[in-house]
Amino acid sequence: MSHDHDAPTLDFAGTTPYEDYVHADVLTHLQQPLSDDPGELAFLVTTQVMELWFTVIVHEWHTAGNRLREDDPYGAMEALQRSTYELRALNASWEPLAHLTPARFNSYRSALGEGSGFQSAMYRRMEFLLGDKSASLLVPHRGSPRVYDELEKALHEPCLYDEVLRHLARQGLPVPDEVLTRDVSGRYEPHPGVEEMWARVYAGDPQAEPYRLGEALTEVAELVWRWRNDHLVATRRAMGAKAGTGGSAGVAWLEKRAAKQVFPELWTARSHV
Ligand code: HEM
């Protein structure tokens, strides 16, 4: 086969190198809509896209935690910053689902059965890294050994915030001992001593490393809160106050979830600066 010298290569012995790297053939054949509604594909693909972003964000927060354990705050902040770009891309992917009407959503909703994003293991990994942990959240995944094992491992690892506080303690900041030695497999509970520590950091030099780390984490927290809020509004538009397919009260339950602050003392400390 002959073609222009400045044109792309057309001949490959096997699959294309692009395919070998991206696995696009696999990726674009993972969509199995359950209804005839033409809008269902966008719902399914948006969900899959979000799963992929969750995966990348978990990877960034893991990296950030590892860097903090090595007392490399700049390496950690680089990973946190990447995650904020990815969180913005994640949040932008609400757009195709943000305008659903209840009738439209109904045309494939029943096909979802008891399926719900609540059962997303990768989202759960994100929440575990943010400190919202509980062994009971492993229960839905008993039927998937690999997923279960990964989640169980994540449950017993320190969350990102634990790594932050341990790092700051090693830098000489006054983090209470009971916070540093907490049972990391349980939910992180806000502590007045940590609030005081952040208030002190925020009253100080904006160029100082703990201050900049605090701001990087605040950015992450705000973007996670925006995801929850966009999800809440999309849900309210699509199904009003109906119960969720996952068995919860629906919007009322999501409102409670969205009201929780990520890295709580970074928000409450602001009242004391
Ligand atoms: C407009 C479409 C959507 C509606 C109406 C909706 C509705 C709901 C509802 C009612 C819940 C509460 C649990 C339940 O009872 O099911 C929930 C949870 C959840 N949904 Fe959605 N959802 C939508 C789209 C999505 C998408 C695209 C994702 C992406 C993966 C997603 C991820 C989640 C997650 C992770 C939770 C659990 C949140 C938590 O644990 O705090 N949802 N959703």
Automatic annotation (TrEMBL):
GO BP, sorted A to Z: L-tryptophan catabolic process to acetyl-CoA; L-tryptophan catabolic process to kynurenine
Catalysed transformations (reactions): L-tryptophan + O2 = N-formyl-L-kynurenine
Keyword Iron belongs to the record: yes
Binding locations of substrate: R109, T245
Free-text cofactor note: Binds 1 heme group per subunit.
Keywords, ordered alphabetically: Dioxygenase, Heme, Iron, Metal-binding, Oxidoreductase, Tryptophan catabolism
Cofactor(s) this protein requires: heme
Pfam family, one: Trp_dioxygenase
Alphabetized InterPro entries for the sequence: Trp/Indoleamine_2_3_dOase-like, Trp_2_3_dOase
Chain residues that bind heme: H231
Domain of life: Bacteria
EC number: 1.13.11.11
Molecular-function GO term, any one: metal ion binding
Pathway: Amino-acid degradation; L-tryptophan degradation via kynurenine pathway; L-kynurenine from L-tryptophan: step 1/2
Keyword Cell membrane: no
Recorded family membership: Belongs to the tryptophan 2,3-dioxygenase family.
PANTHER family: TRYPTOPHAN 2,3-DIOXYGENASE
Subunit: Homotetramer.
Descriptive protein name: Tryptophan 2,3-dioxygenase
UniProt lineage: Bacteria, Bacillati, Actinomycetota, Actinomycetes, Kitasatosporales
